[in-house]
Amino acid sequence: MEDFDTFYDRFHTDDRFQKSRIKFPLDGMSIEDGDEIPWTKDNFPLMKVRIYDVDTKEYNVSYEKKENQFTQRVWLEASEFSSEYRFELIDGKWFLVYVLDQS
């Protein structure tokens, strides 16, 4: 079974690895100005900042790690900005399976 922390660090530093560990079709969507946009391989932005490195003076963050799942959330108070990402362990390997991004 793949170690989550090792996976998570590599996911944010290795673009090719990251692309190989996103389960498309990716559940969730991007919501921009009320428009719901499904995620595709072409429009999904690469993730570069680990949840542990988000500036908590500006953003609110939460994360929950379970045996087979890791969920992270980032949001701004009094704003419509929020994002939620969920990783799941599938056949011994971690994958990004859900992203909801609202702005």
Keywords, please?
6 strands; alpha+beta; 16% helix; 103 residues; Nuclear Transport Factor 2, Chain: A; globular
Characterize the structure shown.
With 103 residues, this protein is α+β, with helices and mostly antiparallel strands. It has one domain (4-102): Nuclear Transport Factor 2, Chain: A. Helix content is 16%, strand content 45%. The chain has 2 helices and 6 strands. The chain has helices spanning 4-13, 15-20; strands at residues 22-32, 35-37, 60-65, 69-75, 82-90, 93-102. The protein has a 6-stranded mixed beta sheet. A hairpin with a 2-residue loop joins β1 (22-32) and β2. The N and C termini lie far apart (36 Å). The relative contact order is 0.25. The model has no long low-confidence stretch (mean pLDDT 96).
